Structure formats: C-alpha cells, structure tokens
Amino acid sequence: MKILVLGIFEHRSDAALAIEDLRKGGIKAKQISAVTKQKNTLDMISHDTGIGRTESGAGNEGLFGTARGLGAGLDMVPETAVAAGPAASKLAGADLDIDGLAVSLISMGIPQEDAESYARHADMEHIIVIVALEEERRKEQISTLFEQHHAIPLGSP
User: Fold this and answer.
1) Nearest CA to 10 among 46, 37, 32, 43?
2) Quick one: pLDDT at residue 76?
C-alpha cells in the first residue's frame, strides 16, 4: 500500500526546491506529483524539477479550453486543477470550487476532511506536492523536508 505525504506551498520556488531536495534524497520523479490552480506555475515547476508534463484534464485544451478559461475568469464556470506527475491523470481537470478535486484526493486515500482542505489550498493558488512512498519509515523525513521549505500547515487558511 502506498503511503502519501503531502506538502502545501505558497510559492513556486519553495515547491520546486522541496522537489529538488526530494530527488537528491533518492525519491524518484515517478513518485512525485503536484497540483495547483495555475498552469504557468506548474509548467515552471515541472520543467525545473522533471516531475512530468503538466496536464489540465480532458476538455481543457484547444478552443474549448480557451473558452472555459474565459468563463472561469468571469466566474461563469468553475476553475479546474492542473497537475503533473503520476497522479495527474486523477487530479487534472478536477473542479476546484465544487468537490471535484476533493473527491479525486479521497479516491487516492486522503481522508475527506483533509482532502477538502487541500482542495481549498489549491483554489487559493497554493501548490500541493504529493509524494508516494512504498514504506512508512521515510514519512517523517519527507515531512521535515517540506517544513524546511516553508510548507504551510494543512489547517491554515
């Protein structure tokens, strides 16, 4: 069973540096995912860290994606999550202001209350970094690394 460790970052540089340190510490890129609201931010993180191409979900590309982006900017349609890494297929395209992202996180094994909090953070343009571990022994080490890179506590607004 996979053990997930999540970190919330307010700034792109903090998330990217945390991911780089994860990689230096032996965590493979295929174990790291990230999700947020801002595609450009995640594109830069993905490029800088090698965690994989940013995905925005089915229906969010091309002409329809442009129209959807305009609608989201005008608060006519909900904004959606963008994601990179192995969890991108489950998280990309999930609605942020209804339960889409929270439900996707719950399906990955995140408790409902925590998933709802992570989704709120993503909607506030924070970056959620997700590390999938095979064994629990590195969980505390990863959490400490996230704290060193200014991770935001889950319960903070």
Assistant:
1) 37
2) 36
Q: What is the rounded CA–CA span in Å between residue 77 and residue 64?
A: 12
User: Which residue do the tokens 């999930």 mark?
Assistant: 94
In this structure, which amino acid lies at residue 123?
D
Q: What are phi and psi of 48, to 5 degrees?
A: -70, -30
**90, 124 Cβ separation under 8 angstroms:** no
Assess whether pLDDT exceeds 60 at residue 58.
no
What average pLDDT does the chain have?
A: 85
**Bridge-based pairing state of the strands 127-133 and 82-84:** unpaired
Does the pTM surpass 0.70? The reply is yes
Angle at 85 between CA 25 and CA 42, to 5 degrees: 95
Amino acid code (one letter) for 11: H
pLDDT at 71: 37
Of 78, 89, 107, 114, the C-alpha closest to 35 is: 89
